[in-house]
Write a structure and sequence with these properties.
- The protein is mainly β.
- It folds into 2 domains: about 90 residues, Sandwich (Immunoglobulin-like); about 180 residues.
- The chain contains 1 helix and 21 strands.
């Protein structure tokens, strides 16, 4: 009798195990989409995978393809395509961790990035009037402290330059000239401060490229005609800016900008010069100019 009872317990246990296995509802991917069905080598594409589980089990996500890099293992990820041309099949796999999973695959067509046919794009930077002397904002006396990260609070006095970025068909870079506060406004600098940034641009190939310049900043709010900046391309002035003025003494405000039009650079050498000067030694507080330079392959 005890033997029969023990056997019954085992039988019931097996049924319960089978019942539990049967009751594990499946995982289902509801949608799997990409931010774009075409991509450029090295430029990220966002992937979104939406799934549900009838038991509300915690779901885990994984991503697979033959090449490229994924940023996360969650329900969305950024895929950085490889430097190859072709169609890549990207798979999202979802699992509930207790035996149920689902997968879905989508194609993404990848093309190589379009290079900008430019060589020799380097900046020659000089500054004058800093308290510690010319190019004193860095140890290498080049006007650049390694590379600037692009944030105002991390800029040094004098010139700051970011690393060049090369998205598809573009080269972009930002420069900033930051002014030391004048002695009459709580600072220590009693000099007229100035700086020059020169880039030699060699356009290769047979087709022109486009130069785009954007700039902004803050200058003295006492008198206009100070904190002057000027942009010259191949000896011709193409844009400028100055302090706003306003008779507010030791204060700063947004500079007045005369923007530069888009410039077409034919194949061959070109010279871009950016000149800055405070134009005197007074009323300079938190002043700076920031310039974004882009070279673009026309589409």
């Amino acid at each position: 009798m005890k033997y029969l009872k023990f056997t019954s317990y085992i039988f019931i246990g097996v049924l319960l195990l089978i019942s539990c296995e049967i009751e594990n509802n499946p995982v289902e991917i509801l949608s799997f989409t990409a931010s774009d069905s075409t991509a450029i080598s090295g430029i990220g594409v966002m992937l979104y995978c939406e799934a549900e589980d009838g038991d509300n089990d915690k779901l885990s996500f994984s991503w697979e393809t033959s090449s490229g890099v994924f940023s996360t293992q969650r329900d969305s990820t950024e895929w950085i395509p490889p430097n190859d041309k072709g169609t890549f099949f990207v798979t999202c796999k979802v699992s509930d961790g207790v035996g149920s999973s689902d997968a879905r695959t989508i194609p993404i067509s990848v093309s190589p990035a379009t290079p900008v046919p430019v060589s020799g794009l380097q900046w020659t930077l000089t500054d004058n009037g800093l308290i510690a002397g010319q190019n004193s904002s860095n140890d290498n006396n080049t006007g650049v402290t390694d590379y600037w990260d692009g944030s105002v609070e991390n800029a040094d006095y004098g010139w700051n330059v970011t690393m060049q970025e090369t998205p598809n068909g573009e080269i972009s870079q930002s420069l900033q000239f930051k002014v030391e506060d004048s002695a009459n406004c709580g600072g220590e600098n009693s000099n007229t401060q100035s700086g020059s940034a020169t880039a030699n641009i060699q356009v290769n190939g047979d087709s022109p490229i486009t130069l785009e310049l954007d700039f902004s900043g803050v200058g003295e709010a006492q008198s206009s005609g100070y904190d002057l900046i000027e942009f010259a391309l191949d000896g011709t002035v193409i844009g400028d800016g100055q302090a706003p003025g306003g008779g507010q003494g030791c204060a700063s405000d947004s500079v007045l900008v005369n923007p530069a039009d888009l410039q077409s650079l034919d194949p061959g050498p070109h010279t871009l010069v950016i000149n800055f000067t405070t134009n005197d030694a007074q009323y300079h507080v938190d002043a700076y100019y920031e310039i974004e330079v882009k070279l673009i392959v026309p589409r």
